[in-house]
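job 3f2a | input accepted
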Amino acid sequence: MEYNFRAIEKKWQDSWGSSNAYRVSINSQKPKCYVLDMFPYPSGAGLHVGHPLGYISSDIYARYKRLKGFNVLHPMGWDAFGLPAEQYALETGQHPAVTTAENIAAFRKQLGNIGFCFDWEREVNTSNPDYYKWTQWLFLQLFDSWFDRNAQKAKRIPELTAIFEKEGNNAHECPGDRALNFTAEEWKGYDEAHQREILMHYRIAFLAYAEVNWCAALGTVLANDEVVNGVSERGGFPVVKKKMRQWFLRITEYANRLLEGLETVNYSEAMKEMQRNWIGKSQGAEITFRFDGNENEGLRVYTTRPDTIFGVDFMVVAPEHELVAKITTPENKVAVDKYLDYVQSRSERERMAEVKQITGCFTGAYVLNPFNGKRIPVWISEYVLAGYGTGAIMAVPCGDQRDFGFAKHFNIPITNIIGDAFNGAEANPTKDAVLQNSDFLNGVPMRQAMELVADKVEAMGIGKKQTNFRMRDAGFSRQRYWGEPFPIVYKNGIPYAVDEKDLPVELPHVDTYKPGEDGEGPLANITDWVNIDANTKRETNTMPGYAGSSWYFLRYADPSNKEEFAGRAATDYWNQVDVYIGGTEHAVGHLLYSRLWTKVLFDLGYIGFDEPYKKLINQGMIQGSSRFVKRLRFIHSDHHVGADEIEPITLPDNKQVYISNSFGDIKIKEIIELIRAQDTSLAEFLDSMHVNYVIESYIHVDVNFVDGVILDIDAARKWKADFANAIFLTQDGQFTCKSEIEKMSKSKYNTVNPDVLVEKYGADTFRMYEMFLGPVEQSKPWDTKGIEGVHRFLKKLWRLFADEQKGLIVKDGEATPEELKILHKTIQKIDSDTENFSYNTAVSQFMICVNELSSLKCNKRSVLEPVLILLTPYAPHIAEELWHLLGNTTTILDAPYPVFEEKYVKEDAFNYPIAVNGKTRTELSFPLDTDNAALEQTVLANEVVQKWIEGKPVKKVVIVKGRMINIVV
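job 3f2a | predicted structure (969 res):
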């Protein structure tokens, strides 16, 4: 009876599927456990071995919790909307709905081969109208809500209009326009258009004009991290700044709630810090500096250091600031316009990251310091962004290094307000100096001065104390096709919600994806769809990818509900996700947006919790072990080494030459002789060209035809045209590649298809090997060679149960104390490691256990059955097969988890190392309760000890109970 893993795994995958073994419902008396993966985007490339790492981790935990008596929800679905699918459709001429469906089918097959315990009846697809109907519905809830700062929660817009009708907005500052103020009478006098415009400044989902990164070639707005050096990360197309009407989510209103919520969840401290930094809470003051010569106009700045008010030597305004055109003097207009053109080509990420390059332009305007009337010049510079704070800063060069560099570059005099703490060579951001050159603050410690100045600013009526956040409202519009249509129509240009009964607003079929006029999305080209009637038009932007992923965990709780996004009974039962597993690339964006949507839904009474995920596990990356071949390019003797541009010789038939990396320093004559052995005519050609120099470079090759570092040359020739007729210079008949650890990527040819490994070694081997590579949270390199050791372990496990000739060899019988000790040590270790996601050490313990039981030739049911149950989360197929071979008729998934009993592992004796004058000479075992007198007597009488004492008098015997015994002679 051999271990036929292919047949076994196919058998049980079919059985689990046909019996709905992983189906769960809320009608259970068991405690619930919700285990969730960050669902994948189904790309055409399919899964490589790095992708399943998180899925295997969650699968082990889900199976483990089921064995521990929990009702486990473990679903899977597809994050199917987004720009990559649309770009792939453009490149291949296929509709994204077609390619997405094909990719999902391929992904699902790959996941099925690995044997995951997903409840596929709960599968969701964000691009399915049955799903995005509810994404649209949820957007309408955000559109129909505002954030009451006094109550710190979302409320309905009709409540806000009722407040306005009764008392105006005096008690509710407008988040979209802080200068907006009106009475109840004024509100009632506004027409509908004006009222809706005001409400838009309060809505959680709102429209606003904003500068965006517009890429005409891609036909869409790009996020800051999608722009590199002024071009799109995808495709390298030009990106410019453009003001466009965009949808946003007012996430800034929830900044405090998002910070507070971090204290209630089990995320890593590093993850929490990333979110805190992104939110960027700071305390300070807003101060208005009046323009010189214009008492009615002022420049409002936000500062966290009001104590430095007398050190302000210049102001810096964002180039996009609305006041720039107004304050620029005629003599400075040409220079300012030229500078603005330059800034247009820069992404925000580049502007914030650049520290060496200092750029700016003087506007010609001045403001007055409100405390001493000092004239302060107003500059514009790219290092200030319109979306941060007020879009303007007061620059204090003696206390801020960037301001210091700017002042030095443009020869702006620097005021020293911190005395000896400023050395003139660099800024000092200290808060502990005593102020100088600071008028009424002279002699006051800086920390004390902060509050003094903030109080005085409020007393003078020139500003106020302010809490600010670095985080900005989230852009929610995309000028592309493959996304959720907005459930919004414009009547005479005013946005209105689509009636809920008309949802979903389905994405119409298109044959072309070119953008509409003025940067509108491709939907703008479908006039029959856009124009409902002469005065009513649909929104032509689509939602971003994170729309569907912000709430998918809720839909899994009740995926077939046609009446609501999820029934309250289902969300109350499954509640928060207990364990959420995914990569750190979603650490900020997705998590913040998902947390926001959850809080809004909680505020509006749709769900009973306001944090989506209790515990977050960020799995590390499985890195690729890349392989490179060394290419040689030959240089004509007319060129000299070190020339700026050396043009290599083009070889006959465009032939390429590659040399084994095993060669060390090798002379050009030796290389030509190696070539001559394979191609005489090529060697003669190189002789005729008087080649005296070669350029070496390394080219990626596919790791799948490299054994360790030895290249399969025949496979390489078939793989790529450049290799087909190439010369491969080998050493001792082998061609050695260079290796390097990199990100696993299709472009680096270092991906390994899990299907190949599952076919060769089995899903159970693959699962356990991925876990064996190292801790879940850490990145680690892939090495296919190591998988064979795990496969041998499973074969050895099989042999504890079955013999190829004899068949099943498991017997009944009472376990020995030694066997029970091995079993219960394993129960204790596996239980602890699995609960704590220490899967690599759990796999090691399984190997130790099997080795020890094999040494004892243990084939007793009372020992082996519990081992199988412990193994089930890790290697479910072999565990299920052996479980049934033992005569069990129900699935091992429902077996009770073994209980650890300390009495079996408790030591009753200790093996003492016996030292003479500090050097260990032997070991003796004693019962743990042996007293010191008996220990000393027995040790001194021992023959080995007597030999090393050599008849010398014993000065003393040092006994450290349970550790060691040392005899001093």
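job 3f2a | Residues 96-114 form the longest helix (19 residues).
job 3f2a | closed
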